[in-house]
Specification:
The protein contains 10 helices and 9 strands. By secondary structure, it is an alpha/beta fold. It has 2 domains: 80 residues, no CATH class; 188 residues, no CATH class. The protein is 46% helix and 19% strand.
Length: 299
C-alpha cells in the first residue's frame, strides 16, 4: 500500500488556527462553522490534489458512481471531514456536550467491560472514531488509546482535559516502539486497548484482502496481539448521522470460517478478513465518511 506524502497523521490548521477554532465555538455555534466549511471545501480540493484524486477514484472506481456523482460525493466527503473536525473542537470549547449518541450492539461492549479480561477495540479512519472517547463514559476498565505522537499542543492538551475524566489514557506511537510494551501490559492487566487497524503506518506485516472491488493490505499487529494474549476484539465505528447526532456501531471481530481453528498465522488472517468485512459493510452504508486521502488499493 503506497501512502500519500500529503497525509502527516495530525490535525491541520496549526496551533494558532486550532486555538482560534476553540475561541470561535465559545462565541458562535456549529451551524455557522459548517457553513464556512461548505465554502472553503472547494479550495481545499484544489490545493490538496492527491487527496481529491484518491477520493474521486474511490467513488468512481470502487463504488461505480458516474463522473458527475463522483465529484459531488467527493465534495460532500470533504465537507463531512471538515464538520467532523469542527465537532471535535466544539467539544473542546463547550462545557456541555452538544451531541446525541445512539449505540447499536452495545451489549457486546458491556459483556466485555463486565468481564475479567482486557480486550481490543479495532478502530479505523471512517466516521469520527475519536469522538467516542469524549462522549462515552464507563468506569470499570481503563481504555488505552494508541495515538499519533506528533499532534499539536492544542489538540494534546484538550484531548487530555476531556479524556482524563473518561478513564482513557493516551499512548503515543513512538519510534523506539516502547508503546508496544505499554499496550501488552494494559491487556494483561485486564484493560482495554484501542488502536486503528486500517493503515499499515510502516508495518511490514499485513494481510492482503478483497475490499470494495479491489485488493488492499491491512496490518495484522492488533489481531496478532489479541490472539497471543487470548483476548477478544471489537470493531467500533462512530458515524455522523446529522448535525448533532452520531451512531456507534459495535461488532465482535472473530476469525472467519477459513481461519477458525487453524494455525496461528491463519487465525490472525481470519481476524483481519473478518474486520475488513465489517469495514466494507460500514463504508457501503456511509461512503461519504471514508477518510483515507491517499491511494489505498494495491493496483
Amino acid at each position: 500500500m503506497k501512502e500519500s506524502p500529503q497525509w502527516k497523521g495530525k490535525t491541520g490548521g496549526g496551533m494558532l488556527g486550532q486555538q482560534g477554532l476553540i475561541l470561535f465555538f465559545k462565541i458562535l455555534n456549529l451551524r455557522m462553522g459548517y457553513f464556512i466549511v461548505a465554502l472553503v471545501a472547494p479550495f481545499y480540493m484544489l490545493l490538496s490534489r492527491a487527496g481529491y484524486k484518491a477520493m474521486y477514484q474511490f467513488f468512481r472506481k470502487r463504488l461505480g458512481a458516474t463522473p458527475r456523482r463522483s465529484f459531488v460525493k467527493t465534495y460532500r466527503n470533504h465537507c463531512l471531514f471538515g464538520q467532523i473536525i469542527l465537532d471535535r473542537f466544539a467539544l473542546f470549547a463547550k462545557d456541555k456536550n452538544p451531541f446525541e449518541l445512539h449505540i447499536e450492539g452495545n451489549e457486546h461492549f458491556l459483556r466485555l467491560v463486565n468481564g475479567e479480561k482486557g480486550f481490543l477495540i479495532a478502530g479505523s479512519h471512517i466516521g469520527n472514531f475519536e469522538i467516542a472517547g469524549y462522549l462515552l463514559r464507563q468506569e470499570k476498565k481503563r481504555i488505552n488509546a494508541l495515538v499519533y505522537a506528533g499532534e499539536t499542543e492544542t489538540v494534546r492538551t484538550n484531548r487530555e482535559k476531556i479524556l482524563q475524566n473518561n478513564a482513557i489514557r493516551l499512548i503515543p506511537v513512538l519510534d523506539d516502539m516502547s508503546h508496544l510494551f505499554t499496550i501488552h501490559a494494559a491487556l494483561r492487566n485486564g484493560e482495554i486497548v484501542s488502536m486503528p487497524c486500517d493503515r499499515l503506518l510502516g508495518s511490514t506485516k499485513h494481510v492482503t484482502c478483497r475490499f470494495l472491488n479491489g485488493e488492499a493490505d491491512f496490518p495484522v499487529g492488533a489481531f496478532s496481539l489479541a490472539d497471543s494474549l487470548g483476548v477478544e476484539a471489537l470493531s467500533i465505528f462512530v458515524m455522523k448521522e446529522s448535525n448533532k447526532k452520531y451512531t456507534v456501531h459495535v461488532k465482535p471481530v472473530t476469525p472467519d470460517a477459513q481461519g477458525a481453528g487453524s494455525s496461528k498465522h491463519e487465525r490472525i488472517a481470519g481476524y483481519v478478513r473478518s474486520y475488513v468485512r465489517e469495514v466494507e459493510n460500514i463504508v457501503r452504508r456511509y461512503p461519504e465518511q471514508w477518510f483515507n486521502y491517499y491511494e489505498f488499493w494495491k493496483e
